[in-house]
Fold this sequence. Notes:
Elements: H1 2-16, E1 33-37, E2 40-43, H2 44-59, H3 64-69, H4 74-95, H5 101-115, H6 118-129, H7 136-153, H8 160-177, E3 179-181, E4 188-189, E5 194-195, H9 204-209
Antiparallel strand pairs: 1-2, 1-3, 4-5
Helix pairs in contact: 1-5, 1-7, 2-4, 4-7, 4-8, 5-6, 5-7
Amino acid sequence: MHRRRRTALTLSAALIAAAPLLTACGNDAHPGAAAVVGGERIEVSTLQAQVRDVRDAQQASPQAAELIKNTGQLGQVKLNSMIFDRILQKAADDAGVKASRKDIQSTRQAAAQQSGGEEQLEAMLLQQGALTADQIDTAIRREVLMSKLAQSLGANTTTPEGQQQVLAVLVKTSEELGIDVNPRYGAWDVKQVRLGEARTPWLTQVTKEAPPEQAPTGA
């Protein structure tokens, strides 16, 4: 039972990795792109599709007005997570670690069981992490890769030193890739591996639930 509870909480921690902070600066050198990561474009249309899916799910919720009100910076949140996932993927590739389909499925099943079922898990993550049912696997994959990356580094992420060890790898990877963000969404902070400054109030509850072992990445 303890293991199941830990799985659910670490999943919540994975959501924090998608929490951006926003500043307005930079040049729009890539029309139609929300960002360019390692020479690969993240299209505005792709980002907007993710935002639209969340808004549709929120509209269908009994708490629609509150959910929408509390996620005013949803575009920045989604773009931050899309950029961060590309950085994490390269860092994981360089370290030779992978998140298998089995890893993702078993983690999601454990989280659902801890939450009282798949429906309850989906409702919780829509409320606390602005995730649709189809976006949950991506958040879980992020958590699995983060855990395996830390293990490959021999980093004890329950300590500040271990957290900094993981962050240093992500910073280095971010620098290598080169992140160019459309100024309408903010500017990339290489040293913090996230977008600039803006509050994400709907993640407050998730932050309180997060275990100390999660490395301070993208939050």
